[in-house]
Write a structure and sequence with these properties.
The complex is a heterodimer of chains A (136) and B (285).
Chain A lengths: L2 E6 L4 E7 L1 E6 L2 E5 L6 E5 L2 E7 L2 E7 L2 E6 L2 E6 L2 E3 L5 H16 L4 H27 L1
Parallel strand pairs in A: 1-9
Antiparallel strand pairs in A: 1-2, 3-4, 3-6, 5-8, 6-7, 7-10, 8-9
Chain B lengths: L3 H56 L18 E6 L9 H15 L3 E6 L1 H9 L3 E6 L11 H12 L6 E11 L2 E10 L16 E3 L2 H74 L3
Parallel strand pairs in B: 1-2, 1-4, 2-3
Antiparallel strand pairs in B: 4-5
Helix pairs in contact in B: 1-5
Classes of the chains: A alpha+beta (136), B alpha/beta (285).
């Protein structure tokens, strides 16, 4: 028995396929989901989402969203997500620097919120990318 | 014969028209690409979000329903959000929306309108409808910020119990060649609660329903609304591209015809002049 997992964001479908186990950071702490999990709805916090399938683990950086489990079908609705392999460290680093620089310059309140979100996103990407590098 | 100059003038006019329409076609084509990326990539997300929200509303107790899910009592009338482009010249897009709305107004009498886009204002004026708020649609990809003020109006009317339901009508993008108007019921978020097969076990909510649901449903409403804007924008660009392509083709055809007429007339004139001269030569003195 396997889980059918889909990870969707408004930008793209990030993942669609089978999984043995999914480890996801939620509002009540990090949880693991195995096949035949009870129906569940919960909120995802920004962090690293890990998918174990056939002995291999793949990582995703996710910026919050919702998780639904029903009949071995797992739906992850993320605000933003990226596969760890796809993270370009240099790009994320650049984005981080850019966001930090913009933060120091004078900006309106609205801009600031956008910049902060950007900064958090690139920091998370960097974290997930680094962790993956270390483990492999 | 004397109309040689006027034919030439008409050719020039047609050429100018074809230049303009060609330019508009190109602009629409380039916008179409970007719009397609945005609208089509978020479509599966919104569909999934809809089905998640739908499943949820089946699984919770009736007492735990949040305001967005309750059917308001002691009130009547509907709020209709009408999404249409700001500019015309996009084929039958606006007319199709108006036709769809006409059918809807036959069944629902008391409607208040929220218009998005200048053409939407025109449609409502046509029906002599009551507009409570009107927003600009813009000529670039709608930004997510557009959703918030619309949601404020929706909240005011629905949560303020001024209307009993909220609908949204917009154009749905099927392909570059086909866009159809669709009506969605936005509020109350009720997905056949009476459905008998609905109760297939309760779901677990972490931390709890009243913490999760308001956020999720709100997010669902915003995304649904935003998707409607994206679809309409995409439809607009596709329709305009096609309409302008047709216009360019037509203009080219007219130019051909006029050219032929011009050449014929010119030849005729020359022939007549030669006839005149040669006739004069042999004329008896």
């Amino acid at each position: 028995m396997k889980l059918a997992l889909t990870i969707l964001t408004p930008q793209a479908q990030i993942y669609s396929g089978e999984a043995d186990e999914i480890i996801v950071p939620t509002i009540t702490g990090e949880i693991g989901i195995l096949p035949n999990h009870v129906s569940l709805l919960t909120q995802i916090l920004p962090g690293e989402l890990r998918v174990k399938n056939a002995g291999k683990t793949s990582s995703f950086a996710i910026m919050g969203g919702y998780l639904e489990v029903a009949n071995n079908q797992v739906n992850v609705l993320g605000d933003y997500a990226i596969r760890a392999e796809d993270i370009e460290v240099a790009k994320a680093q650049q984005a981080k620097e850019r966001a930090e620089k913009a933060k120091q310059e004078k900006a309106s309140l609205e801009d600031l919120a956008t910049i902060e979100a950007e900064l958090r996103k690139s920091l998370l990407e960097l974290k997930v990318a680094h962790r993956r590098k270390r483990s492999s | 014969m004397a109309n040689l100059i006027s034919i030439k003038r008409r050719v020039r006019t047609a050429q100018n028209v074809s230049k303009t329409t060609k330019a508009m076609q190109m602009i629409a084509a380039s916008k179409l690409k970007k719009a397609e990326d945005a609208a089509l990539s978020s479509r599966p997300y919104v569909e999934k979000l809809t089905s998640v929200s739908r499943n949820i509303s089946k699984k919770i107790d009736k007492d735990n329903l949040i305001e967005y899910m309750k059917v308001p009592k002691d009130t009547s009338g509907s709020l209709m959000i009408l999404v249409a482009p700001d500019k015309g010249l996009c084929g039958g897009l606006v007319t199709n929306l108006a036709r769809m709305l006409l059918i809807f107004t036959k069944e629902n009498k008391k409607i208040s309108y929220v218009t998005v886009g200048k053409k939407a204002n025109g449609i409502v004026r046509l029906f002599a409808g009551d507009t409570v708020a009107s927003f600009d649609f813009g000529t670039t990809l709608p930004s997510y910020d557009t959703v918030y003020p619309i949601m404020t109006i929706v909240d005011d009317y629905f949560l303020g119990k001024k209307v009993q339901d909220v609908y949204i009508i917009n154009s749905n993008f099927n392909s570059v060649f086909s866009q159809t108007p669709v009506i969605h019921k936005l509020l109350p978020v009720s997905f056949d609660l009476e459905d008998s097969q609905a109760i297939n076990g309760k779901a677990l909510f972490e931390p709890s329903e009243d913490v999760l649901l308001p956020g999720l449903i709100r997010h669902y409403l915003e995304m649904r609304l935003y998707q409607s804007l994206l679809e309409t924008y995409l439809s607009e660009q596709a329709a305009r591209m096609l309409a302008m392509q047709n216009a360019t083709d037509n203009a080219k055809e007219i130019i051909e015809e006029l050219r032929l007429l011009y050449n014929k007339t010119r030849q005729e004139k020359i022939t007549n002049e030669i006839l005149d001269i040669s006739g004069g030569m042999y004329a008896p003195v």
